[in-house]
Amino acid sequence: MSVDNKSSAERSRSIPNGWVETTLGEVCLKIGSGSTPRGGNEAYKKEGISLIRSQNILDFDFSYNGLAFIDDEQASKLSNVEIFDDDVLINITGDSVARVCSVPKEVLPARVNQHVSILRTVKQELNPTFLKYYLLNPIYKRYLLILANSGGTRNALTKSMLEMLELTIPPIKEQTAIAKILTAFDDKIENLQAQNKTLETTAQTIFKEWFGKYQIGDELPDGWRVGKLGEVIEFINGYAFKSKDLLKEPTENTYKVFKMGDIKKGGGFNQNKTKSYFKREDAMKLSKYILKNGDLLMSMTDMKDAISLLGHTALMIYDNEYIVNQRVGLIRVKNDINIDYPFLYLLTNDKHFIANLRGRANSGVQVNLSTQSIKESQFIIPNKETNIKFDAIAKPLFEKRKHNYIEIKTLKNTRDTLLPKLMSGSLRVKMSEL
User: What is the SS3 assignment for 51?
Assistant: First the structure.
């Protein structure tokens, strides 16, 4: 792709050459939201027609977690909000207001509930993928959030607000070219994410084949024994930061603060959850809390009625970017029998280990794990020779996964840099190449 750059002076004098001003209402066939089926959770099924809710809509992505289903009768009452291929979805209420994504073909047929609005474009005038990226442009996103906060007690974008949204858009061919450029980044990101899921599944399968067939109380191979987690690790409780010392926006001289929300349900590193930052200059005496590649981070608390994180771990893949917060335990490898982070990550997210560990938790309104209960958790310790062989197989899988994550981060940064430039017309696709 080759591009034309326009000076800031040119941009300030006029809209980009060939672009037109319009409103979302003028270039959409449909702007509409659904409703929630009666009956609460009982209205949702294990299978049937998908009902997309606000938790399914993520910027640049779609979450299958919490995807609900309704039957044909319920769906017929929501026939006016049936989702078509190429529809764009936008959250219109609550904390997730203005989040935008496309609809994966895998969830069709589908409907939306009252917290989600369908944007269906006149395709001859507005490319739906271009619209998605237009709404994801950080500059436009800020405008949507301001608009959603303009009245009432709850963030909301009304139908009339959406219809009146002003757009400045290029000709349809240029829209399509811009959409293809940005989609190429997201396709690559999606492929790498799928590859990482395969790599982790492969590692889990190998772990289960090698170690999962043995439980505490079974006869073990020669040299294997039952031991405690504290024998093979160093364990550090996260630092208790004061709220007033945490920043809401990052700078070049801040650490990301690793909190429980950075751990996925069932285990794993949720890299999109960081919301707090800490000045590096204030961390001079906190070096032991600064995270390294290969560190494990364990959730030490959870809600009694909805335990999903307790005991699970995330694997840190970066050096010197994060600092760990309280109620998250930092686990580092420390042994002379070659148990390394791949083994410990897979162990601490194994269902048998988690069940045993949670049995040691203190129960109240919250369920808590103490340092001592974590370190005294039992597991089967293989002999050194087995650990060396397993590490030789597992570690390359984790290293490939790490490099994929780093590439994903680079792709996202590049896409996010290009996005506002392409959407403003300051970076143009040459019309001769369209």
Answer: strand
Per the CB < 8 A criterion, the answer to whether 377 and 313 are in contact is no
β-pair partners for 233: 333
Any alpha helices (H) in 14-137, and if so which ranges?
72-76, 128-136
Closest to 427 in 3D by CA, of 182, 262, 195, 247 = 182
Strands 254-258 and 277-279: antiparallel
What are the tokens at 413? 């940064």
CA distance 299 to 304: 14
Buried b (16+ CB within 10 A) or exposed e, 50-78: bbbbbbbbebbbbeeeebbbbeeebbeeb
For the CA atoms of 332, 257, 348, 402, what is the dihedral angle to 10 degrees?
A: -80
Q: How does strand 254-258 pair with strand 322-324? A: parallel
Q: Return d(Cα 375, Cα 287) in angstroms, integer.
A: 22
Does the pLDDT at position 10 exceed 80? no
The Cα–Cα gap between 311 and 300 comes to: 6
Q: Are 270 and 314 in contact (CB under 8 A)?
A: yes
Q: How confident is the model at residue 13 (pLDDT cuts 50, 70, 90)?
A: very low
Torsion of CA 280, 283, 286, 291, to 10 degrees: -20
Per the CB < 8 A criterion, the answer to whether 383 and 188 are in contact is no
Cis peptide before 396 (omega within 30 of 0): no
DSSP secondary structure code for residue 36 in this structure: P
- CB of 198 closer than 8 Å to CB of 335: no
At 431, is the pLDDT very low, low, confident or very high (cuts 50, 70, 90)?
Answer: low
Q: What is the pLDDT of residues 64-90, one digit of tens each?
A: 988 999 999 999 989 999 999 999 999
Q: Are 33 and 117 in contact (CB under 8 A)?
A: yes
Cβ atoms 9, 137 nearer than 8 A: no
Q: Using only the alpha carbons of the chain, give its radius of gyration.
A: 25
Overall pTM surpassing 0.70 (yes/no): yes
Say which residues have a Cβ less than 8 Å from residue 7's Cβ, sequence separation at least 6.
none
Beta strands 100-102 and 88-91, pairing class: antiparallel
Q: How far apart are the first and last CA of the chain?
A: 10
Burial 369-380 (b: 16+ CB within 10 A, else e): beeebbbebebb
The answer to whether the CB of 251 falls within 8 A of the CB of 277 is: yes
Cα–Cα distance measured from residue 5 to residue 142, given in angstroms and rounded to the nearest whole number: 24
Residues 6+ apart with CB under 8 A from 42: none
Among the listed residues 428, 419, 427, 431, the one whose alpha carbon sits nearest the alpha carbon of residue 130:
419
- DSSP letter at 431 equals G
